[in-house]
Structure formats: structure tokens, C-alpha cells
Amino acid sequence: MDFKLHAPYSATGDQPEAIRKLTEGVRLGLDEQVLLGVTGSGKTFTMASVIANLNRPTLVLAHNKTLAAQLCSEFREFFPENAVEYFISYYDYYQPEAYIAHTDTYIEKDSAINDEIERLRHSATSSLFERRDVIVVSSVSCIYGLGDPIDYKNMVISLRTGMEKSREELMQKLVEIRYERNDLNFTRNTFRVRGDTVEIYPVYWSGRAIRVEFFGDEIDRISEINAVSGMPERVISHVAIYPASHYVASRDKLNRAILEIEREMEERERWFKEHDKLLEAQRIRQRTMYDIEMLQEIGFCSGIENYSRVISGRAPGTPPMTLLDYFPKDFLLFVDESHVTLPQVRAMYAGDRSRKESLVEYGFRLPSAFDNRPLTFPEFEEKVHQAIYVSATPGEYERSRAGQIAEQVIRPTGLLDPKVEVRPIDGQVDDLIGECNRIIERKERVLVTTLTKKMAEDLTTYLQNAGIRVRYMHSDVAALERMEILRDLRMAKFDVLVGINLLREGLDLPEVSLVAILDADKEGFLRSETSLMQTIGRAARNAGGRVIMYADKITPAMRAAIDETERRRGIQDAYNKAHGIVPKTIVKDVRELIEITQAEGEAQRRDGVKMTAAEREREIAKLEKEVRAVGEKFDAAEDVKLFVRQDRHGEIADRYVTAAQLGEQAEALVAGKMFGPELKNNVWTMARVVESRMAPDTLGLKMIVLPYTAEKLADSLKTVATSENFADLSRQYSANEELAAAGGEVGVYPFSAFNTVMAEALSDARKGDVVKVMSGDAIQLVNVYRADKPSKHYKVATVSYPVEASAATLRDVHNQASTFAVNAKGSAAAFNEAASKAAVTPRIATLNMGDRSVRGLEGSREVARWAYGADKGDLSEIFKVGKDYVVALLTEIDDDEYASVKKAAPQIQNRLLRDKKYDYIVKNLSEASLAGAAESFGSEVTDFKDVTFGSFYIDGAGGEPALVGAITETTEKGKVSAPVKGISGVYLFEVTAIDPAERQQTAEDEKVRAEAMAEGMMQQRLLPALQEMAEMKDLSGRYF
Question: Is 0.85 topped by the overall pTM?
């Protein structure tokens, strides 16, 4: 199939000439060309036009994930009928394997793979084998080692209707290409078997799966099905199932590789022994034999990429297989922003090599691991036959090698390069605030570039305090989040974006009319001529675009950038006047995130049939009408808490937050108004402030954790505890061993991290205070050793009506929980540190024998079930409990028949004190009246009413069975009793009135009462038990 270009406009200005020159250059065999196009001149459209003219598979290389995602979205709009794929590193988190010799520290490879990006990578490679009309937009990940494309292609399973193939043979083949059987959890990269039917979820598909039905040993029918509902969508006659890993090989090839790995291991071991490196010799044998056993048993091992050269049968030192090898020989390469991308490609090899040298030298890896690497720059050049370098500021390398340079200086919209002003650094931030306010009044946006991450974050906070809606973006912000930030900027979710080096090449933001460059005269990479030119270009998509450089002197780089900008403005202005063009701002739709982050589900009626567009619109309009009616009542409600508790969609936050943390809701909520209703991420949301309080922004805490029975000990410790002795007291008394070992150190947390109980206890705390907090099954004594300046915090009530379940939101929260779980492994200290980073407060809970859930955590039976089967120090999986995700750490197991002295000490101490008090009172009791006895012992007389034998509880004293028994046995009024030894103290009492019971409780009465209680408990537990045993799904998200 040929490329079909869909565009609402045609080439104008100097685009037609650039397209013609580049197309002819490729056809004439020019190896390298340059497209020199200024920002906003339509370089992407020119690239798309050249691709459509040549009809060749194309690789578009971008220098970062954000730009790659933007390009992918644009090419998908230009080529909706063709395959436009996305290929970047699939790691959300990646710690490469390394060894630091001087500290003898081995760092094991650790990573968190983004499943959606992995799917897109597989989609890219499978498309390259199926068709020629393919565009792959990639980062420099494309020069890193990938599996052998020949093996990848040869291991494809081809299925046709009528083919003779047994069910067992298909299952065996699927296992060989790294698919896993899972009959319960049907996800990508798995298959399941139901009788004569095999269902396969290809690793490169999303929401669709393959159903293969057998009749004996013959394939009877092949269907494409919905992966969630299982409903067939279409019947197909042929399907190809590509491997679930790029590192696959046939069993024969794997066996040959194992022999070669073993031979290399023995040779390396011999070399180590000859050089008297016995530790390294033992290490290389142990590690390699483990990998060999894994390869023999399951065909895979951790770090299999380090054996890729051996598995593919390549000679030592030969280039690795990469994405470039999956393309046919006549593919075309576009290097976008080549002045940045090519230096990245050149730098990749050296860093990888230096890390591998330590691993090989000290016996962690075989020398063949050197060949698992990115391409060297000469190897990259050899694999590329024809390339077009695209940049507004091409480097010397591109200029010197180009067969021709095609220029695009004229913008189709007639826009000129922005005007550049230079202003003094003194007072630059205050001047910037004034400029921002003027731009915001015009409903336009501002970009600000700084020199460091810290400066970007601090400036963001300062601007927020000045009432400006602002966010920052730098390299610590995840790739997918960067795309969302840029989209939200365009959609006016905020007005100012602060960055460092990411607000440069390729960002397409026509709403931005001002770019501010702080400290422009600080010479270096970030303020070089190329960097300044690229940053200036971000304001070139708006008719009123301006650039302000804050500097005390004009550096050579500034002068060159300003002069080149003025030269281009002259050419552009002359062209506009000659053709009667009036510059106008680019109008461009705000694209949703590309299919990296979400795929929308199809709405269905209650009978399961797919809704028509009209039905879907009617349902959405109906819901909006209902939501707005609720919003009017919510806004008028005098008792916000009561309103929210009565609405099943309502929720009161468990934490207090600052105005800055309220984000887009802040303006309305801080002013005492209702926010919303607003539709975002498929959820209608409205909010009001329930209460506000002044509290420190940040608190540093130490803690002593005591059993809930040790309240008197807690009170005693509170009276003697100070900041100076608190660590020692924690080591001596804290029931939490990890916390005791750390001297009670909890860490520094923002006030917004604390739940309501803790927040209310600490809101008025000052440095040096010791506060007692009753929390769950424990008493916490908290020492505040740091308390920052108080600011206003808000507790918010929210009413939310979902239009439909948002898989993207759930995945984002789950990813946060996954990151927390990765960081929390190892110990309670690691768990607390991960909690501090995530700004959440760990909660201490105790499970007693027979508890079916964690107290205070509704619906947590799975958490309790895990705890009973776990060992001390185990970290749980991620549990979904209600709307929350829960990760638990088992810190202690008390399975002894008798409690230890340390654990029993508080109870024994209370018992001894009570006994001593009892003996003292008996010995010294001389007063005949209650008032006299109370005065002599420094106590007071309290009245009790309605004491009966049917309850051990006395209002004001709690559960006191011995006291109740003594009172109910008394038949004489007005007489002071003998001392009674109770649970909480020693009591004297006097009966003032006796009311005879209507009827005495009998054994039969007690039996009836017990049976009624048992029946009630059975009824209470019956429904949850049935729900757990049944396979039930909550489908309400489809309809509400």
C-alpha cells in the first residue's frame, strides 16, 4: 500500500521548492541532505510530503521522548491510513547493571517497564515485517541492541483456517515465543485455553485478541475478539502471531549458544586463575552457570541481552542488531533537530563501554557482553543509506556532508521571527511577573527558561505565590507526563511553563506569545548560539511573539542569535509585503495524548449492545443535566459535610492541602466558592472547602509507638519527654522495633501528607512539642523537632460523577503505587523512606487472630489474608481496596504461646501498680464516708446510675466486671464498701438506691440471646462470603 497524505492545506511559501529538491535528491541517490527550516515553517509537513512522494519505509529520529510523541501525533494525522509507529525506551525507571571497584559495590540491574510503550515497540517491529507503508518515530533507543530480526521473523506463528495443527502444538509454539498461559488473568503477552478454543492476546495489540477454534487437529475458525468482553468482532482467515520478546531463538540455536557461552566461561575462568584472581574466577562461573541453567530450562534469563551476540551467532566485535536492521535496505532516515540528535547518537557508545569494562574485569559478565551495546557512530553511518537532516540550526557535521541544503525560511502563515529585547538582570523576576500578567490578560501563554532544576522549581513556587498558574518541566518529569503538561498549557489549564533545556527544539505551542530567557549572558551550553536560536523559535508561532533576554551584557552568542533573527525577519517581511500577506497566529487543534497512554472503551447500553453515536450523546447530555442540578444544590448547601455524606458520589478528603496543591480549583475554593462542575478525564467534579486551618507547611517528627492499652505509660512519658531525651525514650519504650532502632526518627513531611487524625493533633504544634495521638490500634507520642512557618491549609469535599471508567487514570495511580512498592522493598526503613518521597504517611495496624480485615480499612480482607501467609519483612503486592491502592509491610509476627517480657511489660506494670495501690488503700483506709476517703487519697466522688448485672460497662469508668459484680451483690444501702480491685484502678462505692429487676435472667434467656447474636453475625458475613466465592464483576462503569 502506498502512503496517502491527508492535509487540510497545500504547500506554500518556499515549501514546494524544498519538497521538490529533497525528493529529487533522494531519487538521484544523494546520501545526505539538509532541510534548514525555521521554527513554524512547516518542516513536518515537508517531511510528510517527501515520504508520500517516495513511498519508502521511513525512520524519523528525534532527540527526546516528548518531541518523538509530538511528531508521532502529527504524522498520524497526515497518514491515517498508514502505519505510524512509536519506538522509545520502554523503561519508566532504569538502573543499569554496574560495579564500582573502589567501594566493592555491585549494582544489580533494576527496571520498571512501561507495558504500553513495550506494546508500541512490538507494534513497530511487527509492522515492518508486514508492510512497507510504515513510519517509525523513534528516540536514540533505535541504536541500542535488539534481538536478531531473522530469528524474530522465523519464529512468527502463521495460522490459517483449515490448517492442520493440533491445539497442543499451538500451545507449545506460543510458549517458545515467550507467551505465557494464564487462564484467569487475560492480559497482553498471555494465552488461555478453554476446551478446543485457544485465545491469544498479542503483545503488540491493545483491547483486541485472537480466538482460534479447533475441530480435532484442524483450525476450524479464527476470530478477532474484544479482549475484555470476549465478544467476536470479525472472522478472519489468516493471522500472524509475532514473538512476545525481541530476544527469541529456536531451540537448536539456543543449544548451540549455550555451548559457546560455556566455552567462553571456561576460557575466562582459566584466564582469571592464571592471573591469580580467584574471586573473579569463582564469580564468573557461578553467575554464568546460573544463566545457562535458566536458558536450558525456560529459554530465557535475566540479562539475556548480554548474550545476544552469541545467540545470534555473530562474530566478536560485530555491530549489534538494532531497530535499523528491521527496516528494508532502501529505508529513508529523517533526523529531526539534527544539531542535537546526532551528538546524542555519537555519545551513547562511550558511556556504555566504560560501565561494561568494570563488569567484565571483575567477573560479573563475560567479554561477549561488550557486544550488547549501542552502535558506534561509524556503524550508525554504515547502516544508514540515505538521510535528511532537519534543523533550524544545522551543525557543521550536517553542513559539510550534505549533498544539498534546502531552505525553508518563509512561514506559510506569514509569521515573522519574534522581536528580541534585552533587559537587565536586576529585578528580572519582578519584571517577569508584570509581563506574565499582561500576557495572561490576553489569554496567551508564557515560557520561561532557567539554568538549573532547583531554579526552575523555586521560580515556580515564587510565581505560584504571586497568584500565577504555573508549572515546571525538566528531565525528572516522566516522559508521558511531559506530554500532558504541554497539552494542558495549550488548553489553558495553566498559563506559564518554566523549564531548562526541554523548552527548545520542536515544541509546537502557538498559544505562546512570550519567551523569557533568564540569565541569558551566562555563557555555556544552555546559552550558546544554537540554544538561544532554538529557544527564540518557541515564540515564532504567534503573531505577537516576543523574546525577552535578561542580561547585563550581550555575549557573542546573544549577538549572533539576535543578528540571525533580524536577518530572517527581513527576508520574511519582504516576502509578506511582496505577496500581500498579513501574519496570523497558527490555529492548531489540541491533540489528545497519542495512544501511549490510553485507549477509550466503547460505550454500551444496558443490554450489552454498542451504543450509537446519538445514543451516547443523549446519555452524556442526560448525565450533564443531572450533575449540574446536583451542583446547584451543593453550592447552596449550608452543611457541606452532611450534603456530601448523603450523596453516594461524595467524599471528604482525609488530608489538609495548601492553595498551591489545589491546582486549578484554588481560585474558586480559596475565595469560598464552589469549584465546578467541570468535566475532566471523563469525570464530572465539583468541590467546596469543608474547613480550613493554619498549620506549619512542613514538620519534622520523631515517634514512640505504644500499644493502645498503655495509655497511662504514654501520659507518663509525655510529661518527661523533651527533644533532647526523646530518641533515648523511643529506643527504650517504642513497640516498633525499626522505629526504636532509629531513635524514633520518622522524617520530614509536608503537613498535607498527614491524615485527619494526625493533622488535627499537629496543626497547632510548635518546635519542641510532644503530642499524643490515638491512631488505630496504637498510641503515638510525637516529638516535633521542626515546624516551618504556618500557612493556611484546606480540607475539601468533592462530589464526582464518572462518565465512564478512565483506564488512564487508574493506570497512572497504579504506576505510582508500583514505584512506591519498588522503592519500599528491603526493610521498614526503606518503606518509611519511600513513603516520605511519595508524601504519604504509613499507618500502623495490628491484626489479631480471627480478624478478617484491617481495622479502619473497609474491604481489606485480601490484605489480611496476605498478612496471615506472609513472613516478617515481606512486602505485599498492590491491593485495590475501594478507591485506594494499598501496599503493606509485615513488621512483626507474634506467634509465641506467651508474650515476651518486653511486650507484656506495660500490662504487668499496670497490674503491679494496681496491686500496690490496693494494698496501700486497704492499709490506710480510716475514713467512714466516701467523701472523706476520696479527700484523703486525693481523689473525687463520682455518681453512677443504672448499674446492672447484664453489662460490665459503667459510664465513666469503662469495662469493670469486678466492680459491677460487687455492686450487684450488695443488698444494703448507705454503706461504704470494702476496696474493689478493678482493671483501671481501685474503687470504693456506696449504693444509694436499688431497683428490683422485673424478672431474673435465666440460663434459657442467655441461650436465646447467644443464638440471636450468632445468627446476626452469620447474616452479616454471609453476603461478603458469597461475593468472594462467586465470579462477580462491577459493570456499573459502563452505564453511569
Answer: no
